[in-house]
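Incident review: delayed structure delivery

Summary: a single-chain prediction request sat in the queue longer than the usual turnaround. Root cause was a stuck worker, restarted by the on-call engineer. No data loss occurred. The affected request and its eventual output are reproduced below so the record is complete for anyone auditing the incident later.

Affected input:
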Amino acid sequence: MYERADNTVFSTIFLIVAQTKLQKLRLIHLDYTTNQIAWPIQSTLEQMTIGDCSYHQYRIILCNSLGLRTLVIGDCIIDNIDPTVSSYALTTFDSTGEKLNNITTLDSLLLPFQSPFWLNNKKWFATCDYLTLITVDLSRNEIGDIGAQYLAATLQNHQTLTNLDLSYNRIGNNGMQYLNDAFKENKTLIKLNLKHNLGSYCIIVSASIQIRNDKAITKLNLMTNKISDTGVQYLADALQNNKVLTILELSYNQIGNNGMQYLSDTLKENKTLLELNLKGNPGSYCTIVSAAIQIRNDKTLTILKLSMNQIGHIGTKYLSDLLQTNQMITMMDLSGNHIGDTGAQHLANALQNNITFTELNLWHNEISHIGVQYLADMLRNNTAITSIDLSKNQIRDSGAKYLGDALQNNKTLTKLILDSYYYDDDHADKKTNIISDIGAQFLADALQ
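Output delivered after worker restart:
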């Protein structure tokens, strides 16, 4: 490694490069006030880092380094552009110091990618068309939406680029849309770094690229990223055909019910995702959508705990439909979810002929004698359920009669909980289970 050096030191360096088998060289500073440098043609350099240089110096080095695969430039001073130099010879191109604030300077970087200079003039490659471009680093520049559009159009069909770093630029949501649309069909790009740009969809567009193309990723954490319903559409589209992702963390974002619907519709045919965490989002269907994914795809799931999640009867209907085809779950806790009589009806329909379900907790769900009748009818036929908790609901003597009649034919149920949970005068007016001697008689007759 050499800091800023005079011509004598450079001459020594170049002599070493020319006469040895040096493969890696790092020059912190070149004197870019002097464009003319003597660079040896015969060198074995494969990797080189330049702290700063002029575009002319960059061209001389590249033209005369036939084995170079990696070139890192910290600050390339571009004044007059010469489009004859191609960057196809690079494996990694890092221009962390270049200021790319308009199409002209982007042109200087991107048009050379397609130049026939190396193939036609230098005739470098005998066994392949060109060495592959894998990484482009354009971070910490001033690229805006127009630059992103140009970049997207140029690289959208690139077949070898796997990493594109555009972090710390000035790309807004329009630019994010250009990038997303351009790379939607690209199957090669794995990592698109858009951190610290102006657009609010940076994280989403980056994640969508990775979900589509990274065949090794099984877990993705996107919690607390202010992802909205609009942003989650990008994710939903990318997840549609994903076959490797098993865990997706989206908790504590800003996803509402519209976003939940996008995810639910898209993931209906997905058989790979096992866990989708939507906790802490404003949408009321978070728990249901997460549970639906788990019920459909997790073949080891036997216990489903969903207590105190405000599921309601609509969410219960969604769960019930899934339970009709599930033969793995044996226990479900829906306590404190306000499912009401309608929710009880949905569950009763789903469990009518289920042979694996053994335990159901419906504590504190505002179920009256109407809902109990649906459950009682289900118990007449079900031969698997051994325990039902109906405590702290709104069951009266008529509900007890329905249960008593059902139990006369049911020989499987071993535990039935009908506790009211309120023992003091302060809660005497609450509408919880109130079963009198008459209701107790109905139950007693069934137990004889």
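Verification: The two ends are 93 Å apart (CA to CA).
Action items: add queue-age alerting; document worker restart procedure.
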